[in-house]
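Question: I have long wanted to understand how a fold can be written as tokens. Here is the record:
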Amino acid sequence: MPTPVIEKRRTQRDLPQINERIRFPEIRVIDSDGSQVGIITPSEALRMAEEQELDLVLISETAKPPVCKIMDYGKYKFEQEKKAREARKKQHTADVKEVKMRYKIDEHDYIVRVNQAQRFLKSGDKVKATVIFRGREIQHSNLAEDLLKRMATDLQEFGDVQQFPKREGRNMMMLLAPKK
């Protein structure tokens, strides 16, 4: 037996307030060229919109009196969706990137890790610097802490320490956030 399709019923609130759906005694009307027509009844404004073969669209419901504009609703809706897409495209979520190393790291390898972290911070991501311990190396956690503090000073022009070095099991980690 197929499962029933649950359809969301559209209420009056869900529908855009255009043309006959505008229910106010008086509205402020802006013409299609951007000039103010004045405060008139919705029926008059709708007649004006129909003469121009356009729609009457509610722009600001909270204004006193509410503001409506005579425009092509399809074009307006397309422009709004386009703006929303552009805004989503420009949004950058800060990811957490990780650089791992051992406390006995060679100088050149350390510089490579610092450069990686620098690149991550420049692109707006947070950096989690982790020092991994193996076996009895955990006794030298002070050396790992010194290494992470050195990394923080090397990267201080690109990011700030969000979480200072702390031990988590067999690792020691520090979190850096990009500077604004």
Remarks:
- Residues 96-178 form a domain with the Translation Initiation Factor IF3 fold (CATH 3.30.110.10).
- Helices lie at 42-51, 73-90, 107-122, 141-154.
- The mean pLDDT is 86.
- The longest strand covers residues 159-168.
